Amino acid sequence: DKGNHRHFMQKEIYEQPIVVAQTLRSYLQRLEGKVALPIPDFDLSGIKRVTIVACGTSFYAGMVAKYWFEQFARVPVDLDVASEFRYRAPVMEPGGLMIVISQSGETADTLAALRHAKNEGQTIAAVVNVPTSSMAREADLLLPTHAGPEIGVASTKAFTCQLSVLAALAANLAKAKGRLSADEEKQIVRHLAEAPAAINGALAYDEAIEGMAGAVAGARDVLYLGRGTDYPLALEGALKLKEISYIHAEGYAAGEMKHGPIALIDEHVPVIVIAPSGPLFEKTVSNMQEVQARGGKVILISDYDGIEAAGDGCIATITMPKVHPLIAPIVYAVPVQLLAYHVAVAKGTDVDQPRNLAKSVTVE
Ligand code: M6R
């Protein structure tokens, strides 16, 4: 039931404050200021290496998580799309944790990767939304997302719930490794607990984003740029746009622009720049200005400070609430989803059932 929403995708975008809160509840002891796992005595202290494998949007959640695991827990992370993982003869030593991420828990390549890693003696953690799925059953550590059923083929609420679980897992691992003081743990819990309200703040920009859809709907190509954890978000934005609006879109690490893709820029290519104010902001903005100098039409997604500093010369700006960098990917996912949604609606495509795509890819 879509309720009073026009599409399941729209409904699912709007459910995010609730389902993210619901998911975080199993991973945070808010009053105590502590992170927790659904299996409280699961010992992570011996984990020496993490391998993350997933497909599509779930892969981009994994890509964000790689930054978090390395930053907080200082554990090296390998990351692969599931369809490639087994074909590169991955080296998996004892003491490794394999994390599969999947909304459905049934994606064939991801499941095959899980089984391969299990044979190689890895501990398997599964971040899945369907608790009865094959991956949920076969994992040693089940880390559920509580997004509820996701009907739209374009994944939205599952993604932000995956990010929430992965952030909490990174904090748990850091703690188990003795790399998180009680005070740091408290701060992380505090920031994560702010995510649902911040998502609400992002949703408040819906109408404004709808107003920008026309500027993108007529384009043949669209670029998304980001740095750090905003780079996977750029990839996610491009995937979301291409799958439901059929517009060719690419996500790039902002600094990669001048190594090739900048050749594509002219006044017909909208460029979506994802750049919360913070340590990486200046660098991304200078990449953005290179785009503008070549006539590129930029839509800047940032917070008030970022828009104040760099919004001039953009064809449109999207103002997000000011949030801690840890939760920025969770919050900035929302405008990226809304933009794809409104562009698809403007183009009149089948938003919930885009051509050629299945909700769950159960063949390799
Ligand atoms: O069920 P999974 O999370 O394993 O699915 C992975 C991908 O097939 C999925 O994220 C796909 O890319 C979505 N259509 C993206 O919106």
From TrEMBL:
Domain SIS: residue ranges: 39-179, 212-354
Compartments it resides in: Cytoplasm
Enzyme class: transferase
EC assignment: 2.6.1.16
Gene Ontology MF annotations: carbohydrate derivative binding; glutamine-fructose-6-phosphate transaminase (isomerizing) activity
Transmembrane intervals: none
UniProt keywords, alphabetically: Aminotransferase, Cytoplasm, Glutamine amidotransferase, Repeat, Transferase
UniProt GO BP: amino sugar biosynthetic process; carbohydrate metabolic process; fructose 6-phosphate metabolic process; protein N-linked glycosylation; UDP-N-acetylglucosamine metabolic process
Reaction equations catalysed: D-fructose 6-phosphate + L-glutamine = D-glucosamine 6-phosphate + L-glutamate
Signal peptide residues on this chain, from the entry's feature table: none
Active site: 359 (for fru-6p isomerization activity)
Record's keyword annotation contains Nucleotide-binding: no
The keyword Transferase is assigned to this record: yes
UniProt GO cellular component terms: cytosol
Subunit composition and interactions: Homodimer.
Function in brief: Catalyzes the first step in hexosamine metabolism, converting fructose-6P into glucosamine-6P using glutamine as a nitrogen source.
Designated name of the protein: Glutamine--fructose-6-phosphate aminotransferase [isomerizing]
Organism, as annotated: Sphingomonas yabuuchiae
Source taxonomy: Bacteria, Pseudomonadati, Pseudomonadota, Alphaproteobacteria, Sphingomonadales
Segment of the intact protein contained: 244 to 607 of 607
